[in-house]
Design goal:
Distance between the termini: 31 Å
Strand content: 5-15%
CATH class: Alpha Beta
Site (Part of a proton relay during catalysis): 46, 109
Radius of gyration: 18 Å
InterPro entries: Aldolase_TIM, DapA, DapA-like, Schiff_base-form_aldolases_AS
Catalytic activity: L-aspartate 4-semialdehyde + pyruvate = (2S,4S)-4-hydroxy-2,3,4,5-tetrahydrodipicolinate + H2O + H(+)
Binding site for pyruvate: 47, 206
Structural class: alpha/beta
Shape: globular
CATH superfamily: Aldolase class I
Order of helices and strands: EHEHEHEHEHHEHEHEHHHHH
Largest sheet: 8 strands, parallel
Pathway: Amino-acid biosynthesis; L-lysine biosynthesis via DAP pathway; (S)-tetrahydrodipicolinate from L-aspartate: step 3/4
Length: 292
Amino acid sequence: MNKFYGTGVAIVTPFQANGQVDYSALETLIDFLVDGGVEYLVSLGTTGESATLSKDEKKKVWEFTAEAVNKRVHLVAGIGGNNTYETAAEIKAFDIAGYDAILSASPHYNKPTQEGIYQHYKALAQVSPLPIILYNVPSRTGMSVSAETTVRLAKDFKNIIGIKEASGNFELMNQLMRDKPEDFLVISGDDPISLQMIAMGAVGVISVIGNALPRQFSDMIRLCLAGDYKAAQPAHYSLIEFTRLMFAEGSPAGVKTALKHLGICGDPVRLPLVQVSDSAVAKIKEQVAVIG
């Protein structure tokens, strides 16, 4: 499972001004991230605006991404949803060529009980051709995956290998770290607290800001994993304002603005998301000049 140690980046999906996927920019972004030293990429997670892509678009993006990565780094596909049977069918039919795992967010909107969340992931685990990384992000889904449910899933299904934990709930994380199987991976899903989570035992991060600052962020994460928190602290603190701006008016609009000013891709997003305000653009541009 060392392939998921370090920095994973939930890559954005670049769009042209007309709203179509910009595959040339996507290839440029992938090369930028690989050259920036990240350990793996996540294609079509939440940051990739997967909720606004059609099935055909998602299939093409996954295939293109695998070809562009060409096994230079490890690769994860984001496949989730609030219709368990539809999500299971999508996972079962997924073309695994070039991919190492599936990241699947817990069901949104339905607000299932913990037993419902368990049964949802059980259904996915029973059909998945690849290992599954759970994703707990209650700020988006409306329900948190409890530590007890995560540990239960980890013990019952060997192909459920880890969790991207983005609840920000340190009480939950304390319990999870204490009770999980030794080889079960906990991955930070929250850029600002990745240092703290690694200190607790997390094996790295699946990052948003890593899209724009792959070298700076992955170097900091590697220092944390080596236990050298004193050396990591200056980078951690220098990224606080940049990270805040990336989420101030919604993700991935913020990081797409940063990528635009780095010359990597444009900043269009698909509705219901909109581009950040002019005042936010000015602040992000300033931070890119300082850090990037």
